[in-house]
Amino acid sequence: QVQLVESGGGLVQAGGSLRLSCAASGRTFDSVSVGWFRQAPGKEREFVAARTWGAGRTYYTDSVKGRFTITRDNAKNTVDLQMNSLTPEDTAVYYCAASRPFISRELTTTGTYEYWGQGTQVTVSS
To answer: Who contacts 10 (Cβ-Cβ below 8 Å, separation ≥6)?
Structure first.
């Protein structure tokens, strides 16, 4: 069982930066892959970034490549999402997610993830 709590959302001007953090509880954290998703009003939840367990391979959706960075600290049970050069199109509720243990495929789909945080709002003003 893994429980996730996000923090770090807020209001920022276009071009600014935010760092989201996800604190995880559970003894199996180092064996799960983790991801960030976002959901804007009236839209489906979409993949943003993921990092696998073990080798720590990273994946990003095209629109955030070069601007967002996902990191994890297994010793602290945290997953962070550093977001730079934010645009109004990045405005959404951001969710942290964790897979079942030893899953490292299909990380861009919501169905791969077993555990979800409650979400944190990110608003980027123009």
So the answer is: 18, 121, 122, 123
C-alpha 72/C-alpha 85 separation (Å) is 21
Amino acid at 68: F
Cα separation, 62 vs 71, whole angstroms: 18
Q: What is the pLDDT of residues 65-80, one digit of tens each?
A: 999 999 999 999 999 9
- Report the 10 Å Cβ neighbour count for 91: 18
Cα–Cα dist 91/53, whole Å:
28
Q: With contact defined as beta carbons under 8 Å apart, do 33 and 4 qualify?
A: no
pLDDT tens-digit profile of 53-64? 988 999 999 999
